[in-house]
Amino acid sequence: MATIPDDQPLSEVTMPGTHNTMALYGGVYAECQTWSLASQLRAGIRFLDIRVRHVKGNLTLHHGVSYQRAHFGHVLEGVADFLQEYPSETVLMRLREEFSETYDIYGAVVDYIHRYAHWDLLWHSRLVPTMAEARGKLIILQEFPGPDLGMRYGSLDIADDWKVPTLLHVEDKWQSVYEHLEAAPTGNKAQIFLTYSSGAGVFAYPRAIAQRIHPQLYDYLRAKTDLNQRLGIICMDFPAAPLIQTIIGFQMKEVTKRSQTLNAVPNKASLKHVISSLRKKIIKN
């Protein structure tokens, strides 16, 4: 993200994300990722989907009933370490309660932030930041009651049609992804677009859906890379490096385009050179 202009709103940045970021355990129906949090961040993932179970002030990580052998503090430490090492970056984090129904995780979340990170790590506003404001910050997309810790998850334009009953319904899922990605470039530029390519059902587990959706998504993106379009956040299960790089490539194309536009404007030195060359030609003739 270092090359993204400081004045560019985060809502106009295209970036890869992971659905159920920490779901590495629990069998074929619970597992959504194979890479650790650190590996995901280093690969370019900048949107995290974190689910916590709340029991007596403790926030353990879950995907449904499946405990993910970690707690919320591990996520905060991982993000804080990453942003300290790479201060040009920002990380967005959807945060919600799962497999508990206390509807009161705010206090525990604040406690964990103080214990495992620091208060200034957060972006403390509902407003969409510019890249300059977002650099080095964790932006919590809050999906639980309580005072503001960051932005509200519901303020995003979201396509998350995750119910895919069988593999025969994969094409319906792809249509949902396609339509939302098509709407993103002309949608409200002040609003972050979030498209989930992930899904699951009784007869369709996450990896099987990813194996069928990702080739279509990759081909779709490759066909559009010359168009310099804002697509927003594309959130995936089991993303491979080529797909992640293709998504990041949209942002690089936009940066290159801006740079070329700026370089196309002649400065005083280049004008002097042009005038000098013309004078020499006139004298020669």
From TrEMBL:
Protein name: Uncharacterized protein
